[in-house]
Amino acid sequence: MDRLTSTIDQLSAIAPYRHLFHCHSDGEPMPSAPKLREMIELCRSIIFPGYYGEVATHSSFLRYHIGVSVEQVCRIATDQIQAGLCFLEDETHECDNLSAEEREKTAVEKAEQFVQSLPRLREILATDVEATYNGDPAAKHVGEIISCYPTIRAVFNQRIAHVLLNLGVPLIPRIITELAHSETGIDIHPGAQIGHHFSIDHGTGVVIGETCIIGNNVKLYQGVTLGAKSFPLDADGNPIKGIPRHPIIEDDVIVYSNSTILGRITIGRGSTIGGNLWVTHSVPPGTTLVQRLSEPLASQSD
Amino acid sequence: MDRLTSTIDQLSAIAPYRHLFHCHSDGEPMPSAPKLREMIELCRSIIFPGYYGEVATHSSFLRYHIGVSVEQVCRIATDQIQAGLCFLEDETHECDNLSAEEREKTAVEKAEQFVQSLPRLREILATDVEATYNGDPAAKHVGEIISCYPTIRAVFNQRIAHVLLNLGVPLIPRIITELAHSETGIDIHPGAQIGHHFSIDHGTGVVIGETCIIGNNVKLYQGVTLGAKSFPLDADGNPIKGIPRHPIIEDDVIVYSNSTILGRITIGRGSTIGGNLWVTHSVPPGTTLVQRLSEPLASQSD
Amino acid sequence: MDRLTSTIDQLSAIAPYRHLFHCHSDGEPMPSAPKLREMIELCRSIIFPGYYGEVATHSSFLRYHIGVSVEQVCRIATDQIQAGLCFLEDETHECDNLSAEEREKTAVEKAEQFVQSLPRLREILATDVEATYNGDPAAKHVGEIISCYPTIRAVFNQRIAHVLLNLGVPLIPRIITELAHSETGIDIHPGAQIGHHFSIDHGTGVVIGETCIIGNNVKLYQGVTLGAKSFPLDADGNPIKGIPRHPIIEDDVIVYSNSTILGRITIGRGSTIGGNLWVTHSVPPGTTLVQRLSEPLASQSD
Amino acid sequence: MDRLTSTIDQLSAIAPYRHLFHCHSDGEPMPSAPKLREMIELCRSIIFPGYYGEVATHSSFLRYHIGVSVEQVCRIATDQIQAGLCFLEDETHECDNLSAEEREKTAVEKAEQFVQSLPRLREILATDVEATYNGDPAAKHVGEIISCYPTIRAVFNQRIAHVLLNLGVPLIPRIITELAHSETGIDIHPGAQIGHHFSIDHGTGVVIGETCIIGNNVKLYQGVTLGAKSFPLDADGNPIKGIPRHPIIEDDVIVYSNSTILGRITIGRGSTIGGNLWVTHSVPPGTTLVQRLSEPLASQSD
Amino acid sequence: MDRLTSTIDQLSAIAPYRHLFHCHSDGEPMPSAPKLREMIELCRSIIFPGYYGEVATHSSFLRYHIGVSVEQVCRIATDQIQAGLCFLEDETHECDNLSAEEREKTAVEKAEQFVQSLPRLREILATDVEATYNGDPAAKHVGEIISCYPTIRAVFNQRIAHVLLNLGVPLIPRIITELAHSETGIDIHPGAQIGHHFSIDHGTGVVIGETCIIGNNVKLYQGVTLGAKSFPLDADGNPIKGIPRHPIIEDDVIVYSNSTILGRITIGRGSTIGGNLWVTHSVPPGTTLVQRLSEPLASQSD
Amino acid sequence: MDRLTSTIDQLSAIAPYRHLFHCHSDGEPMPSAPKLREMIELCRSIIFPGYYGEVATHSSFLRYHIGVSVEQVCRIATDQIQAGLCFLEDETHECDNLSAEEREKTAVEKAEQFVQSLPRLREILATDVEATYNGDPAAKHVGEIISCYPTIRAVFNQRIAHVLLNLGVPLIPRIITELAHSETGIDIHPGAQIGHHFSIDHGTGVVIGETCIIGNNVKLYQGVTLGAKSFPLDADGNPIKGIPRHPIIEDDVIVYSNSTILGRITIGRGSTIGGNLWVTHSVPPGTTLVQRLSEPLASQSD
């Protein structure tokens, strides 16, 4: 094993990577995906008690469980937000934009605001459950939706991440949506604005970009991309960040499987976009786009 | 933290969500995805010993390991089926369709029947392993298939879920297939009927619907959807459940990547469906559908 | 439970499956996916300290953490390689191609060589991080790329697996890439050769085949397949293994979402392949392939 | 390993030990020391919050923690009492004295009664803490007593066990006191009756027998035995169970280290028993027993 | 934290302690108390199923549990014996007395012999349980003895350690008896020879020396020492090891609490030794030693 | 379970116990015995590598393990000292004697000083190991002493606790010695001053008081008490704290089993105190105290 000493020396040399890696205050913790996963699990047990977390709680004890979970969420959120605040964008990419005290105070405030948003999140997630149940003939019971439909997990994380993003918390929201991406194959950016009664069927491969705006009562199928068509570069040839570049999907729209909708276009209210389509222009309300029948396919029967 | 008290009160108010959430007998446990994952792991270690579970068992001790695992599977299955039986469909969505005693007795019976199906499952899964190995030039060893091919995990869970579904167990089968969906990106409904020597290459994004019937020796590639084209609504505008609405894929069919086959159509025996196709009509046996060459593509070389 | 005894007997009868299952030396451990996952986590904490593993290490202690992690990686790698060496291809599929001593000695050597490759892996992974950051307008910070972009996890595992494959280690590399496939929905075969500054956006559904050769500075989007078009069968009707059958992607190529590139064709340097395309012929350098506009789509507005 | 098969067969033959071992209903769980240890830990966190269990609870969340812990205690107590009820003494030593339903109903009732005794236990344990603090010049802070004095742990378990014993629960109380015996070296039988303001200094080696009666404000030192002098045998030569045979220690008594007090004698109120004594007769109130000075000890100085 | 670097350097300098610490072959594992504790727990679950280990096993599955546990015991024992063999006494205190191959072969043999002794151990432990139950009026049920009497745990470990000692295994037996010492306060050297029907009441503080010989049907109480009176020194002033120096206790002897019996003396068959005595001479069979009544104790009543 | 609500209310009422329980700043963590146990385990692995902690470290990696362990010890020590500082004695028993910042700064300093004492602790512990080995004819190997002799564990914890006590850390030292007390039955107060080459044989029941002063090369046997004879009370009848009240044991003294030495007396250099004695007066150097032979004991042979 002695031969590995020089390997360890090379790996311990961090200087050449300073420009790439984060310049964290020494000893300050970095954000932790496992802790955020734990926080998400706790939030799920608060919003959907019985389906997540403790499976056999008697209703007369529910309040106590929720109280304990809320405290734990608040503690993890505070720690993680504090860790995340080092990643505030600035010129230097140094973590000295805020003093330790400011970061702690800010983290406590934002964590509390986050927790206070949970009742509202429960309200809107209930509409997502309802929409998913009503839209799927294979669903036998609303409990099936909550227990195992990936759409609920993905949208759950995104709605939480969206609240944190709006509170000005860096990095953490993206980690949260990527946790759901890994779990479900559904990749929704925290920045996307999504109305109530939202559902995604099956879901694997769905991509929803940062500046998407999605109305109420929208339903997507697996493999749908709501993406950017292109993005302008700055003088250095790097993409300019923050420009609206993803679609607006108005209320009551359905997009079938594997269709791709690109660019800052608008899919008008009540439209239906068929499967496997490539859409780069706006369509007016009430449009139905269907795939042109590739009738005389080169098929052959023997 | 005192400010969070009213948040906890709001979150503890369960009444407004009664219509959505499950009305479980107080204190009765709900089904548990982590326990079901544990059960699946045990079943995998029974069916594929050495590849899953204890990695270094001497063959003269194999019988003891299987005995202990069978007992554990039986115990978890009993508990989970009992918890799941509360979700039997009925008018009221109340968990009073069966007495506690009836549920326990039923659960014990169904769990035993499930365990008794394991030898048969091993037999058919061996054909899936064989088909996957024979169909993939990248596979160096049959152990590679069992160890890491997602198709085996997804089909494993689906075949188990299908047995449980046929035993009349609610909810549990769906949780089991969603565990595999999360693990592999392959979403097969427990209701799908699948023949022997079935394989899926790569697999991410595959969707196989509830009423699909798949023959023997069928092979799918990644991104294939066997879905419903549309579904009739009832008087209230909700989808009518349980109607056959997914394709029938006969023996010896191959479907290449990202093709979508929709509706209660039949893909005749021995047919080959090329990639990226959108198929909504039946094709006779022996058909080869290929993508029309989009010859003069708007390409440009500089 | 007595009724289950005969089930246990049937399940303990391993003889009928001998031809399928691996004939491991009794008591010798099989490769273990959980141990390999642990090894990958350790490698991630070595390459990207703070982002993975211990979140709050003071830089003056970094060297110690790396030393301990390197020892652990070396130990796990030795055990797993030793277990994997039983799967060396041979006629008999028996694990007697090497004596226990030879296997142990070989495993120690290969594990050390693997560990010694980590500094070089860090170097090339830094280019992947850089390319991903520069290519995504939604990325706010390079730390976001390392923390949560699936491309980094998938490419990380593939680059490690590729080193092990080149060291002649069987089976283990495939388990490692499938761990990433499960985590990210990105399926890259260990055999693929990939240049520096490689990135995949979103990534779910990407498939990169065994004999692909990918140049520097290549970018893929979600759902892209770099696959085989067909493969020749041997006299027994089984696919012949090891023949080059996947695309060559030259430097500076971009492939947009859900396009499929099949066969041993070459996508020339600097080309751009639009989304949703099906490409089975080589294109010269500098080509831009775009989807023919399906102008008069059967759309209808009401 | 094949040679071990006959060993396993021998060990699986349970028949020859039937008369010794418990004849439990098949599949019914036995009492579990680890679960009871968990229950004790929960009770400690309820009675002494912060010192045991969650170390950083904000007081505004205390109620929720206690609620959750009470539910958990109630659940474990119910299960363990139910398991213990099989050990009710009867002629046959068979576990058929109660039906499963009776046992479950009884267990629920007794568990609730046990939980309802916790506030009273807290009250009396507070007097024990106070007495210990006041009696030890080495104690700097009352928190030191609660955190680490073995007397508190031993008396805690005994008081809980005593409640359960009085509720007619078999076996469980003894397991609970033996947990404390193992932890502290203090062995107090659940049957002993102990007044308030009780303390034991150091404690290792203390033994307090089943039928002891101890008044208020009693203090013992390490190595003190309050035991039986002898016990009458029945016709078969076995000890007759349940006869009062241990000392009565009245209020305000101190017993110094390593003294042994045997038999159903009374140590009168306010007495002081010196160290290393062997006492087998009652002493009147206010007695001070001291060790006779063994003046001309065979000592020698060189 | 930088100031700690020199502390780490000092602590990493192992040379000055070479003469004291063990000169283990680099990378060879040392014996592990936690693994031995696990092995003991497994043995307890084999000998006393239900009371230890899995609490709810159905009797028709018992054989499988025992088979699995036996394999695990065998594996841990092999590893630990192999690690322990480095501690064979020799001149140099170097671990080169046996080659790695010899150690492995020896370890496998001894582990199997150890496992094969388990049925005989069960037989004799059953007599200990019986004796303990018959001798204690506070015991309500034989299950109480097995579940929680410290004597059973201490004697269990000693009997196992004694078997291993007789197999010539170094170090491991002492670790095993010290595990019980820590658990129960009863310190029995692995070398002590102990007959059947042995019991210790309460037990804290009991010490039984290396060369003790204890007959059948012997009962000890807490605090009893069976020790050495003195031991001859060698030319260097160090005690000569291995000389018989502890008492012989013949059949049917009782020793009451806190008595000390020292030296190679014999307590004749059927004798009773009262409490708190200091015995350094042999006594003939049938002797009853009682404490001289210290009648006119310096007591005073007020 | 509804009946338990009022129990929870009673248990949540903390006001009546305020005078007894600690008035901790809300949300500030209390000291944690499990974390301190972890710290002790780490220190043991640093001082005695291989015997504790990682069992199979290659010597060329030792430095890295020690570095990582030192960092962990430093972190836990900082947190625990910070928590403990709330227990500084003052009039009010309120935790406001130090500001949070002062406590943090103080904790960091003291933790570093503690860690810097580890090399010196290793030096003196090596003498304890040596003395124990030389003094016990049953010890076969020095590794046996380190692995399993309780004296090493008890003295280890006490020497660590003593350092922390001298650094002015409240409460934590007592928790640390009580951890060893529970583990070994040896109760040594952190305040005791103990020279080098100290050993305790067997050890159960040993008590060493707060103000003891023990010279070099002292050996004790099981059950020895070095205690206080009495202690003066203050005007309120409470013991006055901090007065020297325990024995001074000079160099080269042996005290045999179960003897009790009480009060601020001096046992002169080189003395031998026999077993079972009760000593309350000083003895000059070189004294041998032996138990007077209770010759004509009331013994009877039949």
Can you offer a commentary on this structure?
The structure is a homohexamer. The first copy, chain A, has helices at about 5-10, 35-45, 60-85, 100-115, 120-135, 140-150, 150-165, 170-185; strands at about 185-190, 195, 200, 205-210, 215, 220, 225, 250, 255, 260, 265, 270-275, 280, 285-290, 300. By secondary structure, chain A is an alpha/beta fold. Chain A has two domains: about 30-185, serine acetyltransferase, domain 1; about 190-290, Hexapeptide repeat proteins (UDP N-Acetylglucosamine Acyltransferase, domain 1, 3 Solenoid), CATH 2.160.10. In chain A, the strands form three sheets. Chain A has a five-stranded parallel β-sheet with strand order 1-4-7-10-13. Chain A is globular and about 65 Å long. At the A-B interface, helix 3, helix 4, helix 5, helix 6 and strand 15 of A face helix 1, helix 8 and strand 14 of B.
How is this structure best summarized?
The structure is a homohexamer of 302-residue chains. Chain A is an alpha/beta fold.
The CATH architecture of the largest domain in chain A is Orthogonal Bundle
Number of domains of chain A: 2
Shape of chain A: globular
Q: Supply the CATH class of the largest domain in chain A.
A: Mainly Alpha
Distance between the termini of chain A: 64 Å
CATH topological fold name of the largest domain in chain A: serine acetyltransferase, domain 1
Q: Based on helices, strands and strand pairing, what is the structural class of chain A? A: alpha/beta
Strand content of chain A: 5-15%
Query: What are the segments of chain A in which pLDDT stays under 50 over at least 5 consecutive residues?
Result: 298-302
Helix content of chain A: 25-40%
Number of helices of chain A: 8
Query: Can you list the strand order of the major beta sheet of chain A?
Result: 1-4-7-10-13
